[in-house]
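Re-run with default settings, no changes from the original entry. Doing this only to confirm the output is reproducible before filing.
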Amino acid sequence: MGGMGFIYSAETEIMHNSALINIYMTDLAARIGVPRYFFSSSVCVYRDMKFGEPEMKEEEAIPAHPDNEYGWEKLYSERIAMAYERRYGMLVRIARFQNCYGPEGTWTGGREKAPAATCRKVAEVGDGGMVEVWGDGSAVRSYTYVSDMVDGIYLLMYSNLKGAVNIGCPQYVTVDELVQMVSKVSGKKIIIKHVKGPVGVQSRNFSNDRIYSLGWKPKFYLEDGIKLTYPWVESQVIASKANK
């Protein structure tokens, strides 16, 4: 797992380690006769977009122009999985994730994603405190609660959908709106300070029509998910301070 800071600072690790993991896993699974194989990809395969652009369907990732090496590696590994499906008859299902978050996830250390990082930053300061946000806070993202993601994976694995399938909450928010949502859930007034840092794309607007065709709908929108995530992250922050 890695947030934007890790994605931009560990390009070689991502390309080397992830590619090798996926090459060996896919090859071995096919050779020993695994009947169904799941590959977790990412909407990072899509290009940078402006908010409000028409949503991209899965096949529109090609011609490809991901903005980071993580997206390129994911596209390559998708192709590996599909090639092995053709060669060996192994049923492959591919989900492109959009910012999965929730309790029990990575919340500190540089590899946490934005919802967990924001919850940690808010938990670490008092009422009226300040949290730093990379960039100007206008970048738009969608965040998918972990149990919704698991439901989507389950439905996909027992479906007949071949090729990549987007799974993500259709609620788009700016980074500043994410901070404001965490602030609301925490009951604190928070001051946002914009600082230089890796931001990534301005937006990715993607279609969920394929996963919707299986009856999947998100049960948790951002406020619902943050209400479950923030208390857990806050408890980790408190426990961490107590152990110092």
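The chain has a mean pLDDT of 95. DSSP finds eight helices and nine strands in the chain.
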